[in-house]
Amino acid sequence: MRLSTPFEQKFPKFLIGDSADRTFVIHLHHPRFVGEVMEHYLAAVKIEPAFIDPPDDLTAPEMAALMRQAGDFYQQETSRE
């Protein structure tokens, strides 16, 4: 298990950012990534990640769980608006 760094202790795990036509979930803890939010009317939110840190130490189930957390965070935050 990887211990959190001082940076990770100081900042939240996820943030939301957007541009004129796209929305992103930014993951600030290891492995850092910017994930584009892909909403589909038939399915749940999908996150298309662009990794800043290599995710080599994650298994496929861990990666799936991380993308699910990112999607859940996005849905939770946007439902508060």
Domains, number? 1
Shape: globular
The quaternary state of the protein chains shown equals single chain
Radius of gyration: 13 Å
- What is the percent of helical residues? 25-40%
Describe the largest sheet. 4 strands, antiparallel
Summarize the structure in words:
With 81 residues, this protein is α+β, with helices and mostly antiparallel strands. The chain has helices at 6-10, 60-79, and strands at residues 14-18, 23-27, 33-40, 43-51. Strands 1-2-3-4 form a four-stranded antiparallel beta sheet, with helices on one face. Strand 1 (14-18) and strand 2 (23-27) form a beta hairpin. The radius of gyration is 13 Å and the shape is globular.
Quick structural summary:
With 81 residues, the protein is of the alpha+beta class. It has helices at 6-10, 60-79; strands at 14-18, 23-27, 33-40, 43-51. The N and C termini lie far apart (35 Å).
Helix-strand layout with pairing:
Elements: H1 6-10, E1 14-18, E2 23-27, E3 33-40, E4 43-51, H2 60-79
Antiparallel strand pairs: 1-2, 2-3, 3-4
Which descriptors would you attach to this protein?
single chain, 81 residues, alpha+beta, four-stranded antiparallel β-sheet, 2 helices, 33% strand, globular
